[in-house]
Amino acid sequence: MATASLTRRSVVLLSSYPFPAPPRFPLQTLTLTLNPFFSHLKSPRSKRTPILSLSISSSASVFAANNGVTNGAPTESKPSTELHLYNTMTKQKELFRARVPGKVGMYVCGVTPYDLSHIGHARVYVTFDVLYRYLQYLGYDICYVRNFTDIDDKIIKRANELRENPLSLSSRFCDEFLSDMAYLQCLPPSFEPRVTDHINQIINMIKQSAKEGEPSWDSPWGKGRPGWHIECSAMSATYLGHSFDIHGGGDDLKFPHHENEIAQSCAACSKSNISYWIHNGFVKVKGDKMSKSKGNFITIREVIEDHHPLALRFFLLGTHYKSPVTYEDAQIYIASERLFYIYQTLHDCEENLGRQDRSIPEDSLPGDVLDCIRNLRRDFEKSMSDDLHTPVVLAALSEPLKIINDLLHTRKGKKRELRFESLYALEKEVRSVLSVLGLMPPSYHEALQILREKALKRASLTEEQVIQKIEERTSARENKEYERSDEIRKELADAGIALMDGPDGTAWRPAVPPGVLQQLQAAAETSN
Hints:
Layout (H helix, E strand, L loop, with lengths): L2 E4 L23 E5 L4 E3 L20 H6 L16 E4 L4 E4 L7 E6 L10 H19 L3 E6 L6 H10 L3 H18 L15 H8 L21 H13 L2 E8 L3 H15 L4 E8 L2 E3 L2 E2 L10 H7 L2 H9 L7 E2 L2 H25 L13 H19 L4 H7 L1 H12 L1 H4 L4 H19 L6 H16 L3 H16 L3 H13 L2 E6 L2 E6 L3 H14 L1
Parallel strand pairs: 6-7, 6-8, 8-9, 10-12
Antiparallel strand pairs: 1-2, 2-3, 4-5, 10-11, 13-14
């Protein structure tokens, strides 16, 4: 088992030994044993007082004060469905047990706001937004904390390049980040602390004042600013206490950030304990991790300029959160097409039902409809409780959507007994699933309109031009000019516009251009 050391620089400030140290280096080294992902503090004097004795902020944490959190062992909670999560600390899936029955404290490391956020950031916060939503679905009361590291070397460097005040720059990009989260329908956390508002808590966590009669030294350091790791240790303790349920972040934060957080928190409070460490996988571009430092990043704004924001969310949920996901523009086209199908189906259902309440006791529904609803509910809860297996949930939506379309559009479906009651129950169940996934739009009609507008933008067409092409094709078909009719259909298909002929005429919808599919296939063959 490897060993490593946290020095005065990496932990920022710790504490002096209780006996004299060399005058030029009064702060001693903290020895750690690596796990190898995480470090566990081991005092060389295990039967005596720990080497590091740090003072803690006198104010009780928000979550601890409100919910009676202690620093002891977790207590068993009894949710309606047993949730299992992969714990990076133990390297296995574990049954989730809240420390306080019915209540969850969750801290997720936030962004360093010096530029627009990219798809890698989107994946982190969509992942934990889904966890947040599912915990709510299970009936938990959650205190969700997501911070802003609003002062950092990167912020200062960027501010100097732009000749802007660092705090002004970070504040501006905090606002941009919040806009991106709203586009992606990530729910606001309970608290969004900023480092610059918590300097006192950080100081309180690391300071050790000299007591009368004890050896002490003058510090050669003047004004300073907090380091990256101590910021999260202090802010999580402020809002959730030193022990809480879930700490999350991207895979790249395992080391050194989360290891150092553990070291500092254990130094500040020997009983500090976080029950579950959860990390999401990287977003890759052409085989490499997407990052600003590599310059291979794609911002959230760039994607949603050409696509509905929820298409990006749908794409991210199409891969299990722990696995790496490779970004391809073609995948967003596919996600957009799938979303259009879902929202069009549910919009048609809503239009047929009007505003009437068609609810009836579930057991009174036709057998096949009842089976479909119960299967969806079972698959949803089973998959989500199995470490948030969102790809399986998305696939499980296919059957209820098919039955809805049959009831809406087929001759046999329109004659079904309890047709409207079945539509009402199916739409309600699908809506419940979409809500937990964060894919439920404020309005089906509005979402469809945005999807159409984005498709037209990608095709460099206006709706008037598409309608004109449809009319030209209709005329060609009436004149039996079938070759010209096919040319128009292909021309629009190549631009990402699919035509659908029906009894009421021809309509259009967004589609994946054949050329984009070919690019995706070529990329897949290259990777294999």
